[in-house]
Amino acid sequence: MSIIILLNVLLGLFLTWSLLSLASMQIQEWIAARLKWRSQMLEKTIGKMLTDFTLVDQFYNHPLVRSLYTGKDNGDKPSYIPTSQFSKAMIDILSATGTEASLLQQQLYKLYSETQRLPRKNRFEARRRISLMLGMIRKALVSETGEDACAEILDTVKNDLLTMGQDLPRFQGSVDSLFDTLRVQKQQINDALIKLSFKANTSTDETTNRIRAGVTALSITHPQLKQTLYALMNSMPQSLLQKESELDLVRSNIEEWFNNAMNRLTGWYKRRCLITTLLLGILLATIVNVDAINLVSRLWREPDLRIAILSNIENILTQNNTTILDVGQLSSIQQQFSDINLPVGWLGSPIKPSISLDTKISEVCTLFPQQESEIYGVLISGECYPIINSPHVTDVTGWLIKLFGILMSGVAASPGASFWFDMLKKIINVRLSGVNPSELKTGAITAKVG
Question: Where are the domains of the chain?
Answer without folding.
Answer: 3-32+271-449, 52-221
